[in-house]
Write a structure and sequence with these properties.
Layout: E1 5-6, H1 8-15, H2 19-27, E2 34-36, E3 39-43, H3 51-55, E4 63-66, H4 71-82, E5 86-91, E6 103-106, H5 113-122, E7 127-129, H6 139-147, E8 151-152, H7 157-163, H8 166-175, E9 183-184, H9 191-201, E10 205-209, E11 219-221, H10 227-242, E12 247-251, E13 257-265, E14 271-283, E15 286-292, H11 299-315, E16 320-328, E17 334-340, H12 347-354, H13 358-366, E18 383-390, E19 392-393, E20 399-400, E21 403-404, E22 407-409, E23 415-418, E24 425-426, E25 433-441, H14 444-457, E26 459-461, H15 467-474, H16 477-480, H17 488-491, H18 502-515, E27 532-537, E28 540-545, E29 554-557, E30 560-565, E31 568-574, H19 580-592, E32 595-598, E33 603-608, E34 615-616, E35 621-627, E36 630-635, E37 640-645, E38 652-653, E39 658-663
Helix pairs in contact: 1-2, 6-7, 14-15
């Protein structure tokens, strides 16, 4: 008689364990499995080999590898330590070892799945947490971890494939009756097919990478004539960020709110939701401020959102912590956006209002424990709001910024999640998120007030950040009134750029003469009068009287004084006499309307689209710079002839470096 073969689910039901447990037994060899038609089957006669394990309860996690970098590593490690779990971190060659872990090991790259699995195995990890970004939503990586006999702290690979891929997620949503924004998620990816789909959808449209999120590779297109260029740019960004250049298209839904629902499912298929977060405060399709509960969400909408999220997660056999995102119109129409098969950056606001530790929930679920919480037991207490502190320059279109963090000060009385410390270099290779500040209060106004006060106490010198912008934003009526939509920030008139006052100029000059390679009398001493020196800030130069400026926060490095002005780190230096070439070039530009193009941010030149002698039109892109896996085209403000090209593809540039010149 032929021995009966069973599927992993049938084995799980017979032994009273989870499918994940059976998959782990097969992966680590404790339960022999064979492939029949591409699927794993287990013989009934072999079940006795794991019968004892099936009755001994969940296997505890003793050692956890965290396959990520930055603040999320410390966040996960903190909870793991509380649970008595040993933590293992990793770091790439151009990155420092993470803080807060018991052991940190080198890897070649955060996207090298094979190397990470090998390190986890050699380090004795029995579980792996991917964090967010990088490989967190890579189904093949999840499968490789499980096949290595290591518990995967996340949903099953099949669930990741179903929702981590945005095209598949749209199809799943439609199949289960969830409304979606009109769009295209087809297999044909050539420009002609996507162009035809865009015409059928109707402009404006939104281009989105199929394989990832976080705003990378997303492009809004209003002019059909721009579609081909934007598709090419989106493919490049998606390929660099996610290793997959497939795209989907959606109608750009303007004036909507971005609401998302936190769900938790155990391996037995039981799930709950923990309420919604409002993530409408965005720039360049990336979130800046998140809060819970949503300020506009009625009790009826809260129930609709929760039910829709649970339906979507159940449909794909979800396990663990996940987030289902929706766009909601002022009329109350609800559209499925996507599902994030991982822990979200903004998860702390949900933790604050529910009292849950979502990382602890993830670890218990990964150890096959039951959820142990009913929907009726979920209570939302007060209001929580989070601000993301980015290394970026709001006065330059929120472009990424780099530098060395020379001084750092965090507020004492609210939650701060960060992975940086004084002395760290902010690189253009990684996400610009420096920290998250989370405030909780009995009401929304109270939470906002706490966060605003905390931002006043925060100090970052050495790299430009959005700190000043965040302070300004929380004071705006549209934010105070809870009326922000996804396109609100794009339509707000931003405050004028900061500029140093007399005290800042004077303090910077004194610090530079005292801290730099300049003598105490260098260029500044005058008999019977205060010493003075010429200083520069950007293109502005002025004569500065020296003074103590004791109330000014500053730090000096490399002949530059980084001065805090209303929350922004500004760079002041001693003004050196211009070279003859610089003086001639400046005079020519002033007289004839010529243009000098400089790098607006640090990064790598990925395209040079003109040569010396070419005739160019006004607003034509001459150089394309990539930083943090996102592209920025540098355009000429005038029509004319290209007189100089000073960079080449592959070259790294710093902010302010000369790229090209155009003679009108």
């Amino acid at each position: 008689m032929t021995d009966e073969t069973l599927t992993p689910r049938e084995v799980a039901e017979e032994l009273g364990v989870t499918v994940r447990t059976v998959q782990r037994w097969v992966a680590d060899g404790r339960l022999p499995g064979v492939r029949v038609g591409g699927r794993v089957r287990v013989s009934r006669s072999s079940l006795g080999m794991v019968a004892d394990a099936a009755t001994s309860g969940p296997s505890p996690i003793r050692a956890l590898l965290i396959a990520n970098r930055g603040e999320i590593v410390q966040r996960i490690a903190r909870t793991a330590r509380l649970l008595g779990i040993r933590t293992i971190g990793v770091h790439a060659p151009d990155d420092r070892a993470p803080d807060g872990v018991d052991l940190a090991l080198p890897i070649s790259d955060y996207l090298d799945a094979d190397a990470i699995v090998d390190v986890a195995r050699r380090a004795g990890a029995d579980a792996l947490h991917p964090g967010y970004g990088f490989l967190a939503e890579n189904a093949a990586f999840a499968d490789a971890v499980i096949r290595a006999g290591i518990a995967w702290v996340g949903p099953p690979a099949a669930a990741i494939a179903a929702v981590g891929d945005k095209a598949a997620a749209r199809r799943t949503a439609v199949a289960h009756g969830a409304p979606v924004v009109p769009g295209y998620e087809g297999e044909a990816q050539d420009d002609a097919s996507l162009g035809a789909a865009a015409e059928a959808i109707g402009y404006p449209i939104l281009i989105k990478p199929s394989a990832g999120g976080g705003g990378k590779g997303m492009r809004a297109v209003r002019d059909p004539g721009r579609l081909a260029d934007e598709l090419a740019a989106a493919r490049r960004e998606a390929s660099r960020a996610f290793g997959d250049d497939r795209l989907i298209l959606e109608r750009l839904l303007e004036g909507a709110r971005h609401l998302e629902v936190q769900v938790l499912f155990d391996a037995q298929g039981y799930g709950i939701h923990l309420g919604e977060r409002d993530c409408s405060t965005q720039r360049r399709n990336q979130k800046i401020v998140e809060e819970s509960p949503g300020p506009s969400v009625s009790a009826e909408l809260h129930e609709r959102l929760g039910a829709a999220a649970l339906t979507m997660a159940s449909a794909v056999g979800y396990v663990g912590a996940g987030t289902v995102e929706f766009l909601v119109t002022d009329d109350g129409d609800l559209f499925f956006g996507e599902m994030n098969a991982r822990l979200q950056v903004e998860h702390p606001v949900t933790e604050a209002v529910t009292g849950r530790d979502l990382v602890a929930d993830q670890l218990r679920i990964a150890a096959d424990e039951a959820l142990g919480l009913t929907q009726a037991a979920v209570r939302l207490n007060g209001h929580a709001i989070e601000a993301r502190l980015y290394a970026e320059d709001p006065d330059a279109g929120f472009l990424p910024a780099t530098g060395r963090i020379l001084r750092l000060r965090w507020p004492d009385d609210i939650r701060v999640e960060t992975g940086v410390r004084e002395g760290d270099a902010v690189s253009d290779r990684y996400d610009p998120l420096l920290a998250k500040l989370i405030a909780h209060g009995p009401s929304r106004p109270a939470a906002i007030a706490r966060l605003r006060a905390a931002l006043n106490e925060t100090l970052v010198l050495g790299a430009r950040t959005n700190l000043r912008f965040l302070r300004w934003l929380l004071d705006q009526p549209v934010m105070r009134d809870g009326e922000v939509r996804t396109d609100t920030l794009a339509n707000l008139a931003l405050p004028p750029p900061p500029s140093p006052d007399d005290a800042a100029w004077s303090a910077a000059a004194s610090a530079l003469l005292g801290a730099g390679p300049y003598g105490p009398w260098a260029g500044g001493w005058r008999a019977a009068a205060p010493a003075a020196v010429r200083m520069r800030f950007g293109t502005e130069e002025r004569r500065v009287e020296l003074g103590a400026g004791s109330h000014v926060e500053l730090a000096v490095e490399g002949g530059v004084a980084h001065v805090d002005v209303d929350g922004q780190s500004l760079e002041l230096s001693l003004a050196m006499p211009p070279s003859v070439e610089e003086a001639v070039r400046h005079a020519a530009a002033q007289a004839g309307g010529s243009a000098i193009l400089v790098a607006p941010m640090p990064g790598r030149v990925i395209a040079v689209r003109a040569s010396e002698g070419d005739s160019v039109l006004a607003h034509q892109a001459l150089v394309v710079i990539e930083a943090m896996k996102m592209e920025h085209a540098v355009v000429t403000p005038v029509a004319g002839t290209v007189t100089r090209i000073l960079v080449k593809e592959g070259q790294h540039v710093q902010r302010g470096d000369l790229l090209a010149e155009v003679s009108a």
